[in-house]
Amino acid sequence: MKSEIILYDNYYLYLEAFPCFLDKNGFTEMYDYKSTVEFSEIENLVSEDSSVVIMNIAAVSINDAMEIVEKLLSLNEHLKIMILSPNAEVRNIKKFFDKGVKSFLTKHTHGHEFLNALKEVMDGKVYISEETKNSLYNFICNIDDQQDKKANGIEDLTSREIDVLHQICEGLRSKEIAERLFISKHTVESHRRNIMMKLDVHNSSMLVKFAMDNRLVN
Prior knowledge:
By secondary structure, the chain is α/β, with parallel strands linked by helices. Helices cover 55% and strands 14% of the residues. It has a 6-stranded parallel sheet, with helices on both faces. Helix 3 (62-75) links the parallel strand 3 (50-56) and strand 4 (80-85). It starts with a strand and ends in a 5-residue tail after the last helix.
């Protein structure tokens, strides 16, 4: 008996065209095909012979999509689920993979990439598109950057302290900074001490170097 590919999409046109796409690329020789336009019917189509479920979640909420993923995998733990989504929201992508999804593709995915993803998933592998990889990479880098800022004290700086730091990096003295920011020289000196303490630097030269190394100034 052939294994099954199940497709959910809320457009009848896609459901009708998809078998032709599979047949053209040789998949119908190994797999049977089922489809539904009703989101609530997906779990009723899943059996022990089901191999891959492809879901276009454009018309359903993220929570509903994640809930059905859990239900499908409870019915068939060997099921391979592919998500088609209109956007690549990183936090949602991670949640889907945590739930057990094998592939996440966006509306920008071309036919050849979809075929590559389908083949990889059928072989039991996880497929991540280039767009998704870039989104995840940027997300991870942003987290690392935030953690670095927190670790080295940057996040502890107040907006006024950052203003003072910028003036210091321009080479201004305390009196000049006070005049520019309309505060007293004593207040500037107080901000300077607090900045150095928070960033763990001990003189103005180290302060300027720290600001440049951490891209706090141009």
